[in-house]
Amino acid sequence: MVLAFALVAVVSALGTGALTFREARNGLLQRSQDGVVDQFRDEVGQVVPGFATPADQDTLTELASRLVSGHRAQSWRVVATYGALRADAGSGPAPELIGRELRGRVETHSVAVFQRVRARSGTVLVVGLPVTYAGGSRGLSGLSVYLIVPQSGEEAYVAALVSAVERAALPSLGLAVLLALLLARGVLRPVRELRGAQRRMAEGDLGTRLRVQGSDELAGLAGAFNETAAALEKSVAELRRMEARARRFAADVSHELRTPLAAMTAVTDVLAEEAPRFDEDTADAVRLVTEETMRLARLVEDLMEISRFDAGAVELHADDLDLAESVRRTLSTRGWTGRVETELPAGVRARVDPRRLDVVVANLVGNALKHGAAPVRLALRPLPSPRGVEIEVSDRGPGVPEAALPHLFDRFFKAGAARTRSESSGLGLAITHENVRLHGGDVTAANRPDGGAVFTVRLPLAPPEDAGKTPEARA
């Protein structure tokens, strides 16, 4: 905008100067030209009637000399022609400047003809005047006179005019640019303040406000921004209060449910052991109660874990681990060793929390076994740049709907309606994401081109000098 204002100012100043110069120059040259033509016509009108028809060279030479005699100071050169005869007089520019087109027009018309010609010495005015008969019948007499006069004086005036325009235009141009910059600054300052306020709000400072000055459109915009910011701050504060209440409620409910769930779990364990002694209907009821109690217990544990992440009460107890051995232990503990194909190269070590790594691997492999199709494959790979490790879990199932991919790690999100009544809580992938993020890594989900879903975890490797240090010491 500053450049636009400055450009407009420059164009306006230069355009005004150019138009002023052009009009003044044209007016000066036109006035000079009209004066010379009228003067030459009057001179011809006074001198020619005293001569008879110039039938010889001497008469024609005398006519030219008479016409130029009173104007030698003006550097006139007069050329007179009659048929094949030609005579010239005066100290002005050369007769060769009379063009063929101008001569043709003078010899065939009864009006004065003139043109400006560019010569080596400068601009020259050439005037052609046919002499006509006076009396009852008017017509061309065959005598033509030409005036060639330099316009050095006019050029000097034009040069002086150019200098004057330059002297006037440069300060005017500077003043116009200065005014344009001041105007642009006045317009852009509120815009810059608005941009800065928007950036601060985007960074989380919802208390940002603008000063409202004046009553123009920018002041109205600043006022509208302040109203929007105030409404947004109020809405965000209310949402944060509601979110905090919801988190406290989930944490409190989960905590309160743990005690009765512990008792229920103990009772269902006893009932499950005695189920073979019951009749078929009672045994089915016992198994159902046991499964639902276990599902409820897992949901409560997941809610407690999410609540700890929300409260910032999660601690990372990292240790230097052989990742291949840790992954094998996770699969063996859950009885998945024969159900999962593995690619676990030896010697890949990283500083991670073993319990949280176990949760991450168990959630991803369990998710693939439940909702994918064989073969389920787990691969462990070191990453050369940036240094880290990659854990990839894939299956050959139907994959994940494309619309669901961006939301897989949201809490309580389930990719399909058929899974809404499954034993999954909808928190497993959210807990996986939080655990990976706690390690400084990331987890992504995608579909394989040849079918199936693939989940990829990337974890950084701690440097060797960090081995044995607690997270607090590393921080």
UniProtKB/TrEMBL annotation:
Domain Histidine kinase: 252-463
EC number: 2.7.13.3
Record's keyword annotation contains Transmembrane: yes
PROSITE patterns registered for this protein in UniProt: HAMP, HIS_KIN
Chief place of localization: membrane
Record's keyword annotation contains Kinase: yes
Gene Ontology MF terms in the entry: kinase activity
Top-rank EC class of the record's enzyme: transferase
Catalytic activity: ATP + protein L-histidine = ADP + protein N-phospho-L-histidine
Cellular localization per UniProt: Cell membrane
Stretches assigned to the HAMP domain: 185-237
Keyword set, alphabetical order: Kinase, Membrane, Phosphoprotein, Transferase, Transmembrane, Transmembrane helix, Two-component regulatory system
PANTHER family: SENSOR HISTIDINE KINASE TRCS (PTHR45436:SF5), SENSOR HISTIDINE KINASE YKOH (PTHR45436)
Protein name: histidine kinase
